[in-house]
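Thread title: Can someone regenerate the structure for this chain?

I was given the following input by a collaborator and told the matching structure tokens would be attached. They weren't. Posting the sequence so someone can regenerate them.
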Amino acid sequence: MTTSRPRVVSLASDDAHRFSKHVAQEVRVVEGSGVVGDAHAGATVQHRSRVRADPTQPNLRQVHLIHAELLDELAGSGFDVAPGDLGENITTRDVDLLGLPRGTRLAIGPEVVLEVTGLRNPCQQINDFWPGLLKQVLTPDGAGGVVRRAGIMSVVRQGGTISAGDTIEVTRPETEHRPLAPV
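Best answer:
Regenerated them for you:
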């Protein structure tokens, strides 16, 4: 049995606060800010509802990652969702994004290092994009809670260029496993 290396499948960004992002062959990321030219880049929060609440909060959502396996699963349920459609910057394959603890470092390609900060908290905009899709990415956990499957958020610890096809090296923190929570 062969095991594939974690890798970048697709990249996307958008300079406006639209739900979906435009696919690109590469993106540049800046330490402490995010994807160059993306509306969510910045040292402080850029998500419009969070800006209204407190514009001085640190931006823990600089780069959004989604696993391609989720898109595959959605396609099997009749939802034709392509990379960038759900607003993610990076679509990955062969890495269990949702199982990573907070503080995990993702070395992408030869330059970039991202640090995982938490889960994306999917909202009604997903249903506006495709009715019924929210129920696919927010599922019951069997204990009265929900599993948020719409990807993870991260901050840029080392900037550079990310290209489609780049490999991803996962380094978990040496401290106690801290499960991901919405950020």
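The helical segments are 48-53, 68-76, 125-129, 134-137.
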